[in-house]
Design brief:
Layout lengths: L2 E3 L6 E3 L1 E4 L9 H13 L4 E3 L11 H10 L8 E6 L14 H15 L4 E6 L8 H13 L3 E7 L3 H14 L3 E5 L13 H8 L2 E4 L27 H7 L5 H9 L1 H7 L3 H10 L4 E6 L4 H8 L8 H10 L1 E2 L3 E2 L20
Parallel strand pairs: 3-4, 3-10, 4-5, 5-6, 6-7, 7-8, 8-9, 9-10
Antiparallel strand pairs: 1-2, 11-12
Helix pairs in contact: 1-2, 1-11, 2-3, 3-4, 4-5, 5-6
Length: 342
């Protein structure tokens, strides 16, 4: 497994990072633990979760991760979690206030069965709390050894710049951003990536296979498989944006490129993400162990300039034009208008 520095920090993380959004909850604990063990066997050392993942009623994914990793040498792991989204009924059970950050961190540490997390991330930007309050709370966690580094997720370029300025003043190691990024969703390229690189932040990207669309399992003119994410109420809320026939046809045009490299479409999609400037790691989610092994192998795929150009060409439709979403304005989605379970 390849390891890369996260931004300009000294921290190295596995280029394939194992995530637990949508795949790890108490209803499928045995399967989730099996995929986690497969990830360890594949050399993955970095595990990303959040206090809201897995529900009931919040913290289930952290508990599962903590139980599965218990007994593994802690120094050999990088454990990442997040804070911001609603985790209870109280007025202070969401956001990036000092109260919610500190209380949430302590609760996450208990569930993860660890004394510290390697990276503690602001799950979204909180427009209702002064940024100084948020960054000072993070600084205190770092000073007390509860978090070694700080990161953000889905922040705009302006928010990253403001947070990085305060981090420098407070001497807080703000080193990462966690955005959505794939061949089909490139909204971070114009503004977020340059701002993050200037500030020394690396990208730990999620949804590199566009919620499964870039695996090629969804075909134009057909209904999604009954057991697929697109067929579920929760999954379809995210995968639905890609389910048009022009996009699904474009994905099929990528298959000859994957075949030339001797890889699956999923591996091609992950390899593409890992080839992009500023990307430190790609988060994979898996419900079955074989999916972990497949995606982990993508680190060995090195795409040349010709392949990258052909990928871009395949994603242009003769009638509808460029099928890639590039609008920087779609980076931002305030936490207070998001579904609580995300």
């Amino acid at each position: 497994m390849e390891h890369r520095h996260l931004g300009r920090s000294g921290l190295q993380i596995s280029a394939i990072t194992f995530g637990s959004w949508l795949t790890h909850d108490s209803s499928a604990a045995d399967s989730a633990k099996a995929t986690l063990r497969t990830a360890l066997d594949a050399g993955i050392t970095t595990f990303d979760t959040a206090d809201v993942y897995g529900r009931p009623e919040f913290g289930a994914a952290e508990e599962l991760l903590g139980d599965t990793l218990h007994g593994v040498r802690r120094e050999s792991l990088e454990i990442l979690t997040k804070v911001c989204l609603r985790t209870g009924p109280g007025a202070n059970d969401e956001g990036l206030s000092r109260k919610h950050i500190l209380e949430s961190c302590h609760a996450s540490l208990r569930r993860l069965r660890t004394d510290y997390v390697d990276l503690y991330q602001a799950h979204r930007f909180d427009p209702r709390t002064p940024l100084e309050e948020t960054m000072t709370a993070f600084a205190d966690l770092v000073r007390h050894g509860k978090a070694l580094y700080i990161g953000v997720s889905e922040w705009t370029a302006a928010q990253i710049e403001a947070g990085a300025a305060l981090a420098r003043e407070l001497r807080v190691p703000l080193i990462s951003n966690q955005p959505q990024y794939s061949m089909l969703w490139r909204v971070i390229e114009a503004e977020v990536v340059p701002a993050a690189q200037t500030a020394g932040l690396g990208q730990i990207v999620f949804s590199p296979v566009a919620q499964g669309v870039l695996t090629g399992k969804y075909l134009p003119g057909t209904q999604p498989p009954a057991d697929s994410r697109a067929a579920s109420a929760k999954g379809s809320a995210f995968v639905g944006r890609y389910m048009s026939d022009p996009v699904l046809a474009a994905v099929q045009r990528l298959k000859p490129i994957a075949d030339e490299f001797g890889v699956t479409l999923a591996q091609l999609a992950v390899a593409w993400v890992l080839s992009r400037p500023g990307v430190s790691a790609a988060i994979i989610g898996a419900s079955r162990p074989e999916q972990v092994a497949e995606n982990a192998a993508a680190v060995e795929v090195k795409l040349d300039d010709d392949a990258l150009a052909r990928i871009d060409a395949a994603l242009v439709d003769p009638v509808h034009g460029d099928l890639v979403e590039r609008d920087p304005a779609k980076t931002a989605r305030p936490f207070d208008v998001m579904p609580a379970w995300r």
